[in-house]
Amino acid sequence: MKGLGMIIPIGERVLIRVEEAPKFSKGGITIPEGAREEPQRGEILKMGMSSEAPDGPHYGIGSVIVFRRYSGVKVKDGDEELLILDEKDILAVVG
User: Fold this and answer.
1) What SS3 state is found at 25?
2) pLDDT per residue as tens digits for the range 1-38
3) Cα 14 from chain centroid?
4) What is the pTM of this model?
5) Which domains, from first to last, does the chain contain?
């Protein structure tokens, strides 16, 4: 991942790689780009200096998370689109 070292989340934020929206339905029909739902899952790439929960963090770098729809700020890293997300917008960690 070229240039990732230059993007450092500040405060209680995380940098994530958002999963791609499926291009085909379960039945094999192509879903047009404008009709695809905005993904709500991603992998944490970097973390800012966060205020940890008293029982410790439940996620870290490499964790796959579910986050609130339409949250965060999109940033470009070369051809890849990443998302800077507030920790409060993380809803769950995927097993």
Assistant:
1) coil
2) 455 568 889 989 999 999 876 677 788 888 777 776 67
3) 8
4) 0.78
5) 4-93 (2.30.33.40)
